[in-house]
Amino acid sequence: MQLPWGKRKQPRRSRWIDGADFIPHAVLGIRSCFEFISEAIGRIFLMILFHHLTSIASYVRINDGTKGQE
Predict the structure, then answer these.
(1) What gap in Å lies between CA 59 and CA 68, rounded to an integer?
(2) pLDDT, tens digit, for every residue of 13-62?
């Protein structure tokens, strides 16, 4: 894209992403921290889901004997 005053607008690039020979330790630390947090959230979600499913199954099993009775 040509700007009116003659300078060409270049897309912004990160020097760490474009052809970097190394990844700084801080970036690796942040990435591993985010991975740890996301795995923990996923495990907590699965535990809550399992708890709700077993609670529903228990409720249905307990109340199943009352069906058809007046």
Answers:
(1) 17
(2) 555 555 556 666 667 677 778 888 899 999 999 999 999 999 998 888 87
